[in-house]
Amino acid sequence: MGLFNKDENWWLRLTIVIISIASLSLYSIGNKEIMGQAEWCERKTDSLSSEIFILNTTISRYEITLDILKETDSIAAAKFEKILYTETE
User: Fold this and answer.
1) CB of 66 within 8 A of CB of 3?
2) What is the domain extent for residue 20?
3) pLDDT of 46-78, one tens digit each?
């Protein structure tokens, strides 16, 4: 189990789904103005996908770092986990 619950990104995933559905519906209408909006939505979807990738990479790096810390300095790892679970929101 990692440091962060994967369900914390549910709103990002939901946003991507909603924007993707909106993009697909806008493409079917064919209006140039609406097509411009669809392209904007597509860029936003790509941007959100990139952001999710970056955040998941960052989370993975923290998890790996904590695993290494547990192996090398278990006391520091225990302090870190205590702070993580009790002193942060």
Assistant:
1) yes
2) 6-86
3) 889 999 999 999 999 999 999 999 999 999 999
76 domain residue, yes or no: yes
- If one counts the domains in the chain, the total is 1
Residue 1 belongs to some domain of the structure: no
Give a three-class secondary structure readout of the chain: CCCCCHHHHHHHHHHHHHHHHHHHHHHHHCCHHHHHHHHHHHHHHHHHHHHHHHHHHHHHHHHHHHHHHHHHCHHHHHHHHHHHHHCCC
Euclidean distance between CA atoms 7 and 14, whole angstroms: 11
Q: pLDDT digit string (tens) for 16-37? A: 878 887 776 666 666 666 667 7
Alpha-carbon distance of 53 to 33, in angstroms, equals: 31
Chain-centroid distance of CA 48 in Å reads 8
Question: Does residue 44 sit within a domain?
Answer: yes
